[in-house]
Amino acid sequence: MSPSPNDPLFPGTPQEFLASWSATRGNLRRFLEDRALPPIDEESQRTAGEAAAAAAVQETFGIELDAFSSGVDSVSGSIEAAGGIHISTPDPDVPQDVGAAAFFDVDNTLIQGSSLIVFAMGLFRKKYFRISEILPIAWKQLKFRITGSENAADVAEGRNQALEFIKGKSVAELVELCEEIVDSSMIDKAWPATRELAHMHLAAGHQVWLVSATPVQLAQILAERFGFTGALGTVAEVEDGHFTGRLVGDILHGPGKKHSVAALAAIEQLDLARCTAYSDSINDIPMLSMVGTAVAINPDKKLRREAQQRGWAIRDYRSVRRAVRTWGLPAVVTAAASLGSWRVFRREKQAQ
């Protein structure tokens, strides 16, 4: 048995169905019983409801129902962490372009290098954990800083280690530390040109969201400081104000970002064809390819190649790497050596 499109209780389009379901924070069974389907026997109701949800998800986003459900869990966790879906309210003098949004990755897209290593070192200075707990994560993040590319296995292992050492710790304490670290060590690491892009979207009446594998509390504080609409991040489960050491929904890495953006689009009624996504990593191809406009910012080699093949815009703000690509490594090394020699000569002249 399937739902009738003429049923006044059942949403008329896949988009309306997903928006209504997602607004219940993923409780598909309750949504089907309370809003979508007439009273029928439990098995038929479950089968019809799952079929309708699966069809709507596939038609709208091209992903499986389980993936979308995981995205809804992640978005719901982000909403709960923020105390509401929007962190910042739009400028009342700016007409809102409803349905349009921009999604920004954080590491090496908005923030220079890795936000996680800055965060971890800040926590270490606050004696939040021991050095033995942070060394494995620091090594993985050092590799990322040197190579400019992410490794999915490193991200997953780092996530598990991070979840383990925050187990039992207070959420309020972590949020307070996040605020201190963002204000003292992260704001000034933002790429000015990326911030300008984000504010151009806000000025056009678009929503602006951070979508990052970084802890959701950190991502949301960054979004608040920059005046963005909100942030989706990796959500650690919380009970009685303390972390359980378990994850809610996806880690927001690779396909996880696509699933969460799909869920957010359903909740916020966003038209993904009118949305823009920005990232530096080949791992974010799932998110980049689901929107109307994709932009590679400070891209790793694989993403640069993919962006060139797909005709996506490329923006590179890394001066040294850009200089190497423009003039070649020998020319840059020669120029650096010449500059160094000139500075030594100048100091010697001043000392005479």
Entry summary:
This protein is of the alpha/beta class. The chain has helices spanning 14-23, 28-36, 42-61, 65-82, 115-125, 131-147, 152-166, 171-186, 192-203, 216-226, 255-268, 285-288, 301-310, 319-327, 329-351, and strands at residues 101-104, 207-215, 230-239, 242-248, 276-279, 293-297, 313-315.
- The poorly predicted ranges are 1-10, 322-329, 335-345
- What coarse outline follows from CA principal-axis ratios? globular
Largest sheet: 7 strands, mixed
Number of helical regions? 15
Distance N to C terminus? 94 Å
User: What's the oligomerization state?
Assistant: single chain
Topology of this protein?
Elements: H1 14-23, H2 28-36, H3 42-61, H4 65-82, E1 101-104, H5 115-125, H6 131-147, H7 152-166, H8 171-186, H9 192-203, E2 207-215, H10 216-226, E3 230-239, E4 242-248, H11 255-268, E5 276-279, H12 285-288, E6 293-297, H13 301-310, E7 313-315, H14 319-327, H15 329-351
Parallel strand pairs: 1-2, 1-5, 2-3, 5-6, 6-7
Antiparallel strand pairs: 3-4
Helix pairs in contact: 1-2, 1-3, 1-11, 2-3, 4-11, 5-6, 5-8, 6-7, 8-10, 14-15
Family: Belongs to the HAD-like hydrolase superfamily. SerB family.
Pfam family, one: HAD
GO molecular function: hydrolase activity
Walk me through this protein's architecture.
This protein has a 7-stranded mixed beta sheet. α10 (216-226) links the parallel β2 and β3 (230-239). α14 crosses α15 (329-351). Residues 1-10, 322-329 and 335-345 have low confidence and may be disordered. The chain has helices at residues 14-23, 28-36, 42-61, 65-82, 115-125, 131-147, 152-166, 171-186, 192-203, 216-226, 255-268, 285-288, 301-310, 319-327, 329-351; strands at residues 101-104, 207-215, 230-239, 242-248, 276-279, 293-297, 313-315. It starts with 13 loop residues before the first helix and ends with a helix. The protein has 352 residues and is an alpha/beta fold.
